[in-house]
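quick one, 247 residues, struct below
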Amino acid sequence: MSCDEEVRRVKSVLIKALDSLGADLKTRALTHVSYANEKGPPVASNERLEFLGDAVISLAVAYHLFNAHPDLSEGDLTRMRANLVSGSSLAWVARAGGLGDLLLLGRGEEMTGGRERQRNLASAFEAVVGAVFLEKGWAEAKKLVEETVLSLKMETVPVDPKTLVQELVQRTPGLTLEYKVVGVEGPDHLPTYTVACFVGGKEVSRGQGSSKKDAEENAARSLLENGFLSRGLPDDKHHFSGDKIGS
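---
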């Protein structure tokens, strides 16, 4: 299946899920906290549904992995689950499903690119799953996760890009590795960090994320993807997913 076909399929699945919800619950699942704060009571944000959906997604993915990979250790299963339920994975599903266009945002959030912000997209998908669980039950919520998150074919045991970069740098005695925050943008409750990665005192890559940790991992990922440090190690950069996290 081509990428365009996959996007259309995921969008069809998500729209069907949304249309199956009652009007009030559907609206709440798509209501960002910035919109709820502007409108005031009785308008409620999707934060509680997001909390519930996060747990439902994690359980659905864990249940699938437990049954699909009986020989894997707890640690490998944990890393696989983390990869599948990462912000980038859930945001990809939300973006493919067109949730960004459906979000109800406050004026400030709208003006600062909130419809494309990874955290907003991932949270919206979690809220939709939570809403489906509330109204349709576990079986339908689990089916939604299977037809979206678990259909992405990302069931690999990922290697932390920061760990891989550190291992590569340590192969050269005396070579230093450092990450520095070089910028923070956005409102206090939704910051975007920019981190620069320095090898041997030289800036070699940058990454962005909604936390310092995510930005550092994206900087390390970028370093590996652009080929620096990988000369003579052509396979190293293929041990983890190419999807960025936290940006």
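Residues 47-68 form the longest helix (22 residues).
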